[in-house]
Amino acid sequence: MTLICPVCGSPLTPEPARYLCTKNHSFDRAKSGYVNLLMRQKHRQRGDDTAMLAARRDFLDQGFYLPLLDAVAEAIPQNTETLADIGCGEGWYSCGLLKRFSAASLAGFDISPDAVRYAAQRAKAENTAARSCWAVASVNHIPLADESCRCILNLFAPCEPAEFARILAKDGLLIRAVPLERHLWELKCAVYDEPYENRPVLAAPEGFTLISQKALRYPINVSGDALHTLFAMTPYAHKTARSDAAKLDALTSLTVTVEFGVLICKKQ
């Protein structure tokens, strides 16, 4: 897929050390391969921090969420050639799908430079770098041309319907994944005296039509360090008192229910 210049909208040509547009706007390319296209003066948010990203990378690598990857792959038409992962994180889902869709190319975007660096490194390690490009960018200003993407992945990430509609082909799909009401419920119960349920939005974003949805629920048994890794990869890690988080130290294992909603949408 071809990235576009965030300044003028011209196509960007990848070179070993930079991306360059036809109007000579130049953007340095990191050693891992990603490029930072975030207009810093407009965005101060930096996304997930390094500790959370590392925890999620380590947890996902153990295969606990493989059924979700399977469900997303099943929703993507086999002839799909261009994918965009908006809020790609450390690239576990992106690279997993590239290995299943050998004719597809993918552009992955995240507002966190650390996330995109991890994703680019994973792509190299898993031999998917040649069919992928990775950029630091905001969901409000995705550096892709109009209607250039056949499928958008938006998994546990912020949604910007107008921008998604702009880059999505007329017959393309938007696939979203959201945590359902009792996702990780047992983990919450182990930490909090009064756990609360999630409030998922299971409707299509504005300008899109929901064509199907699937609820995915199954238990996982998490033990040892993986239990702390699971907690560390969630937003709860930054919102929980140390005295509550320390309750996990008394546990050697825990059976936790994961609940995902997978929404398949088309733009109107």
Write the layout of secondary structure elements.
Elements: E1 12-14, E2 18-21, E3 26-28, E4 35-36, H1 50-60, H2 66-75, E5 82-86, H3 92-100, E6 105-110, H4 113-125, E7 132-136, E8 149-155, H5 161-167, E9 168-179, H6 185-191, E10 208-223, H7 225-232, H8 236-239, H9 242-245, E11 253-267
Parallel strand pairs: 4-7, 5-6, 5-8, 6-7, 8-9
Antiparallel strand pairs: 1-2, 2-3, 9-11, 10-11
What's this model, at a glance?
The protein is 27% helix and 29% strand.
Task: Characterise the protein shown here.
The protein is of the alpha/beta class and 268 residues long. The chain contains nine helices and eleven strands. It has a single domain (12-267), classed as Vaccinia Virus protein VP39 (Rossmann fold, 3-Layer(aba) Sandwich), CATH 3.40.50.150. The strands form two sheets. Strands 4-7-6-5-8-9-11-10 form an eight-stranded mixed β-sheet, sandwiched between helices. The longest helix has 13 residues, at 113-125. It is globular. The model has no long low-confidence stretch (mean pLDDT 94).
